[in-house]
Sequence to fold (1086 residues):
Amino acid sequence: MTALLEVRNVSRFFGGVTANLDVSFSVDQGVVLGLIGPNGAGKTTLFNCITGFYPPSRGEIFFEGQRINGFPPDKVCRLGMARTWQKVRPLAKLTVLDNTVVGALCHTNSVPEARQIALEQLRVVGLEKRANVLAGGLPIGERKKLELARVMATKPRMILLDEVMGGLNARESEEIIGLILDVKKRGLTQVVIEHDMKAIVRTCDRIVVLNSGEKLAEGSPQQIVNDPRVMAAYLGDSGGAKA
Amino acid sequence: MRTFLPWAVAAVALALVPLWVQSPYALHIFILLFLAIALGESWNIIGGFAGQYSVGHSAWYGLGAYGAFILLQRKAIAPWFGVWVAIAAAVIIAVAVGWITFRLRGPYFVLASIAVAEIIRLAALNWKELTNGAEGILAADVPPLRLGGTVITDWNSKIPYFYMGLGMALFCIAVNFLVKRSKLGYYLQAIREDQDAAHSLGIPLTLSKNTGLAISAACTALAGGFAALYIGFIEPQGVFGIEVSIQMVLTCIIGGIGTVAGPVIGAVVVVLLSEALRASLSSAHLLVYGVLVIIVILTMPDGFVGFIAHRLRRKAAA
Amino acid sequence: MTPLLEVRDLDFAYGDVQVLRGVSLSVNAGEIVTLVGSNGAGKSTTLRNISRLLRPRAGTMVFDGHDLTRLAPHQVVALGVVHVPEARRVFPEMTVLENLRMGSYIASARAERAKNIERGLMLFPRLKERIGQLAGTLSGGEQQMLAIARGLMARPRLLLLDEPSLGLSPLLVRTIFDTIAQINAQGTSVLLVEQNVYQSLRIAARGYVLETGRIALSGTGESLLANSEVKAAFLGA
Amino acid sequence: MAVFLQSALSGILIGGVYALTGIGLTLIFGVMRVINFAQGDLVMVGMYCTFWLFVLLGIDPFLSVVLTMPALFLLGALLQRTLINRVLDALPQNQILLTIGIGLVLSNTAMLVFTSDYRILSTSYSSSSVALGVIRLSTPLLFCFLITGVITAALYWFLVKTDTGHAIRATAQDRDAAQLMGVNVRFMGVLAFGLGSALAGAAGALVAPIYYIYPQVGGAFTLKAFVVVVLGGMGSIIGAALGGILIGMSESLAAVYIAADMKDLCVYVIFLLVLLLKPSGLLGKSRM
Fold:
């Protein structure tokens, strides 16, 4: 079986700055993969490369065996790979329902049909009562859920979540974790960028660690948490200090 | 249906106006109003829904006007037929331009749209064999409008222009409604709110913007053809000048961009104020636009419609 | 003894995203105090509130008897609180020398400008070789040195350092931390924000651990280094 | 060859004025990220100031620069403090519309006060010229260019040598970092808008003896200023100076070698090409 997503030796440079260097990993169908690393490790850049916002400077990306380097983001989305944003990007002056309709129109030309799909997804994330509120007026927790509903409305086979729990309180994070596990049960493949290690350990099957743009480690959550290289990356070089 | 009822009532009421009002000046004001509404609604499709602030729509307005008039003069084709050719030309050029300039974002797009309109204006100014240059074109004899052999009008009063203008304004409003509720409308509004987010949700940016621009340019060219027929004279600065574009944008901003009612309200405010102050301002009538836009941007950046909607929401919440 | 800087119950939110919840900390004259925590815990936000780039929702911040919440950023600098922002933030189209001169922009610092440039270049000899070069063309490490040297130009009483080790090679990281200790020895108090827990706790007198906008732990540098909860705060293990 | 030199040189001379308006625009954009669509109308105000100073008080247009510059500085600073400052955090489109509104108010007020008549400021040396070998250069143009050079050099000196100049550049390069150096960035905004307007005023004074003076003359200058600034790279002063000269020269050469009526057309085509092919400007990304 070939992997659903395969990232092969991807590098991305901005001028003289290296954001990603020779990153490779693959994600099998149905797996939740955690992508972690300290600030500036190049996680979001990698997302942007995979989803077509900027093509990788080197390396290749395959989705369902198809090479998708250089595909524009809209085409990537229509192929079945959708993403959320670290800083939520609601379409502020559209209602919650209309935001989701925009996603649903990805696979239908009929607005009424898109509304049906959208309402269904809003029910899944528990926003159906807020359908007619302007998205810009939602509190952060609901905006994150809206992003998830909007992405799910595009009927993806794989979703990439960029810090969906950032800025949430414990109860809201718990709800999002529930949603991720729910989506996983339905067989959807997910790649999750997250800082909260507890959430990562609970939701992910595998973890890839990035540090200064390069892949530092890959393995099961237990392997990663106990990896001394990962600890050094997060806690700093312990040279000279007695830890 | 509830949405359309007030519009239908207003349309019927307006259609009855010439039964009571015969003063040519009053009818003239109505015709100006219809023209301003049609232009505002036309710009609203690409500027309001898609958030692409073109300050070069005079290009499509002028192409509509010149196209209709040149065909009338050269080939004796009646403007109400000729304008369709002009519209087609405007759409083709608009899409060609859009394909290039829609890559630009924000202020750069604004500047490019101005440059395109200037280029077309200068071309019209200098292609004297076709356009008669700066002297402009005075309408040749406009043939009477016939339907199945009977003469409907020979254009001697303002009433036919009134109905034609009303029809055009309603048409542009209807186009706005249709676009807003279509897949394209959702796409354009998503692009306005957040281009990257829209892109990531599967929206083809350039194709959507160009479709919007084509519709917008077609409506604008239609209004240009109408204006030329009504005024009976065109010259490059008058139809291609940046003032035309600015008036289109400001009508929408003042009323509230991205809403169907906004351009209507903006047109009413601006046309009535300009006319009321025309005596004291004479050629400086654009002062009204300047002052209004400063006030609107500083105090109600979402226009009258946005301002009132916000008030209503606050009242409902309280 | 009253502390040099005292922050009490600081609350801050970006829109409705609550970033800081009741953060309290203090820096005594002559101390290095470090604020550690993982990504997004609110470390930089705390510094940006102190230097008034951000407006806190609630809380007090007093520096040497002055209420910082009532001041604009440039007035905070005039009091002697200098913030060296993260990601280096040098002025890219200015030369190294011009950047240093900008560091002594406030009126009280201009008189001693030449002397302070001399001192900065002694601290970072590498900058001397690059004095006429545009700052945007420097390497990451050199930009960091420049940012710190520029921050010292106003002879601050309190230096707020944001992630000075970010993106530097391990060797350079040690140099930077040693230099911070040296600056402190010359009489400048330091509030240091770091992801590099080991190195910053090593040179700090006291430390605070920030976890999702709250102070989770505090203590002397040594006690925190020995504390197993510190590791948990970062790795969730 | 003489024709080429003649037109290239005249182009460079008039390009100096374009450079001046462009530098003003780029200064304002650099510090505040606001594109000032009223820049040309400020030039128009400068032209009228110069005209009336000449007609009523008999002050030579080139000398009047010392009066129009401070006057326009005050006007610009006032506009910034009362209007522009309120939209610094607004959408860029709204900022653009606000400056368009300001431009409309300026030009239409001028129309109310001075009527739409075209006025000509003619001095004793208006039509005289200086011979340079086979080439003849118009005296007012030559004066105009020399004063432009002096003003640009003074501005450059101010930005590169003084602390306040450094603070303006620092604000343009990194607003937050500038605040952390103790720079009052709001004040720098007022200063930048004032300086940008003063430069527009100077340009107005310098072209007053060369161009017709009428309320709508500003539009053309605004467009030229955009072309100049985009060509040189938004926010770059040296870029704007070079861009101005380049535009003046292409205009003048296009008039001779293509057709006099086509010169503006050529300029806008160049503009579009630069926008599309190298939107960061010919000098690339560069900030003060």
